[in-house]
Design a protein that fits this description.
- The protein has 8 helices and 13 strands.
- The protein is α/β, with parallel strands linked by helices and 240 residues long.
- It has a single domain (2-212), classed as Spore Coat Polysaccharide Biosynthesis Protein SpsA, Chain A.
- Strands 1, 4, 5, 6, 8, 9, 10, 11 and 12 form a 9-stranded mixed beta sheet that branches. The chain has a two-stranded antiparallel ribbon with strand order 2-3.
- α3 (81-88) crosses α7 (189-199).
C-alpha cells in the first residue's frame, strides 16, 4: 500500500492544484519511485489511498500497467490519516504480510532483504529505521541491541536497558493480525497503533538502513531530490 491521500500542506503553493505524489522529480512523478521499488521486489498488487486531488492521481497512473503493477484505489472522504487508511484497506491487505510505503519518500532499499529480516524475526511488524541527525524532527524509535523496538515516540517512559534512537524512514511491514488492534476512524498508525502493540506485548523490530533516502515534503526537499537524482544511482530503477 502506498499512502498518497495527504494535502501536501508544506509544499504549497505547488500542491494547491497538483497532488504531491504527481510532482515531477527527475522526469518521473514522485509516486513512481515507491511504485517501482515495489515492482523491483516482485510486489505487483498495489493499493493507493486517495483524497486530495485524487482524481488526478488515478488519471495519471491508471491501472498501473505502465509501471508493471496492478493498482487498486481506496477513496477517502473524509481523509483518514495513516491508521484509518490502513484499516479502511483491510479487505485488500489482510490475506498476507503487507508493506506500507509513503508516496513522498525515495529510498534505494533492498525490500526483499527487509522482508526476509521480518520473516526471520517473526514479529508483528518491522519498520525501516535510519540513524539520522533529524531524528528529533520525526520522533525517535528506540531499539535494543537486537533491533527490537522498545520505546516508540517516548512510550513507555521507563525502559531498563540501553537503547539506540533511530528515525522511521517511510517503509513499514506488518502481519495481518495487526488489524486485531485497529478500528475504523481517523488516527495515526504510529501515534496510536504502534504504541498499542508495544503495550500489548507484541514484538516490533527495526530494520536499519543507511543508503540513499530523501523525503519530499518541503520545497527545499523537492529541489534537493531533483538535484540528487542527476547523480545518484537508484538500483531498483534498473530492475527487470
Amino acid at each position: 500500500m502506498i499512502l498518497a491521500a495527504g494535502f501536501g500542506t508544506r509544499m504549497r503553493p505547488s500542491t494547491d492544484h497538483t497532488p504531491k505524489p504527481l510532482l515531477d522529480v527527475a522526469g518521473r512523478p514522485l509516486i513512481a519511485y515507491p511504485l517501482l521499488l515495489l515492482r523491483s521486489a516482485g510486489i505487483t498488487e498495489v493499493l493507493i489511498n486517495l483524497h486530495h486531488l485524487g482524481a488526478q492521481i488515478r488519471a495519471a497512473l491508471g491501472d498501473g500497467s505502465a509501471y508493471g503493477v496492478r493498482i487498486t484505489y481506496s477513496e477517502e472522504d473524509p481523509i483518514l490519516d495513516t491508521g484509518g487508511a490502513i484499516k479502511n484497506a483491510e479487505s485488500f491487505l489482510r490475506e498476507d504480510t503487507f508493506a506500507i510505503l509513503n508516496a513522498d519518500t525515495i529510498v534505494d532499499l533492498d525490500l526483499p532483504a527487509m522482508l526476509a529480516f521480518h520473516r526471520a524475526r517473526g514479529g508483528i511488524s518491522t519498520m525501516m529505521l535510519r540513524d539520522d541527525p533529524e531524528v528529533a524532527r520525526y520522533g525517535a524509535i528506540e531499539v535494543d541491541t537486537d533491533d527490537r523496538v522498545r520505546r516508540f515516540l517516548g512510550v513507555p517512559t521507563e525502559v531498563a536497558m540501553p537503547l539506540t534512537p533511530l528515525m522511521y524512514g517511510g517503509v513499514w511491514i506488518f502481519e495481518p493480525r495487526v488489524f486485531e488492534y485497529m478500528e475504523r476512524g481517523v488516527y495515526s498508525i504510529a501515534k496510536r497503533t504502534a504504541i498499542d502493540l508495544l503495550r500489548a506485548g507484541e514484538v516490533l523490530y527495526g530494520y536499519r538502513y543507511d543508503g540513499y533516502w530523501r523525503v519530499i515534503d518541503t520545497p527545499d526537499g523537492l529541489e534537493t531530490g531533483r538535484r540528487d537524482l542527476t547523480s545518484v544511482h537508484l538500483r531498483f530503477l534498473n530492475a527487470p
